[in-house]
Design a protein that fits this description.
This protein has 210 residues and is of the alpha/beta class. The chain has a single domain, classed as Rossmann fold. Helices cover 50% and strands 11% of the residues. The protein has ten helices and five strands; from the N terminus they run αβαβαααβαβαααβα. The chain has a five-stranded parallel beta sheet with strand order 2-3-1-4-5. The longest helix is centred in the last third of the chain and has 20 residues.
């Protein structure tokens, strides 16, 4: 992998919109500080990347995609990482991505679907912000992710739906550790982003209450 041969490449991010959306000028947003990351977790196809980009624009925050960061570190795509080095190597890079997120503040973060599979990753992410679990029904996940050529966990599955259901059952206890849950199955990107903003405000006000 490139990071092992050439050293750590320069970190690359999508800067989003640098001018804050009017939403964050509202005094009610004072309860949510720039020191908190907004961390989107959930299964593939839940809409984390699309919603994350939308939130970064609306809130004037930097967007950090852990899968993109991992691909940058490895110098190849995630399917290539799986094919060349195997899933354990990918999970190790995913843990490094969680540590990178924990070192930064003021981000909107889109994570890979299995990043909460390691307890240490959960602790790292929770230490830096609010975890938002983006849920979706299996049939919605399959429709959004098809065809599965770039989805290593589904590409070779004999029964993709059964595999999605198995992985969801396996990962649900970790997803339950999130601070907020938003079901994206029947909502647009804009609607999900709006619900997350509303839920974040409610969550932060509750935590700020004496």
């Amino acid at each position: 992998m490139r990071r092992l041969i050439q050293g750590r490449p320069e970190f690359r991010v999508d800067p989003g919109r640098r001018t804050a959306h009017p939403r964050v000028c509202d005094p009610q947003w004072a309860v949510f500080t720039e020191s908190d990351n907004i961390i989107l977790v959930g299964f593939m196809g839940a809409g984390k990347s699309a919603v994350g980009r939308r939130l970064s624009r609306e809130l004037g925050r930097t967007f950090f995609d852990t899968d993109r960061w991992i691909a940058d570190q490895a110098g190849c795509s995630i399917p290539e990482i799986f094919a060349r080095y195997g899933e354990p190597a990918f999970r190790d890079l995913e843990s490094e991505a969680a540590a990178e997120v924990a070192r930064r503040r003021g981000l909107v973060v889109s994570t890979g679907g299995g990043i909460l599979g390691r307890v240490a990753n959960v602790a790292l992410l929770r230490s830096s912000g609010v975890l938002v679990f983006m849920a979706a029904r299996p049939e919605v996940i399959l429709a959004r992710t098809a065809p599965w050529d770039t989805r290593p966990l589904l590409r070779d599955a004999a029964d993709p739906r059964a595999e999605v259901e198995r992985l969801l059952r396996e990962r649900q206890p970790a997803y339950d550790a999130a601070d907020l849950t938003v079901d994206t199955s029947d909502q647009s990107i804009a609607e999900v982003a709006e619900e997350i903003c509303a839920r974040l405000l409610s969550h932060c006000r509750r935590d700020a209450a004496p």
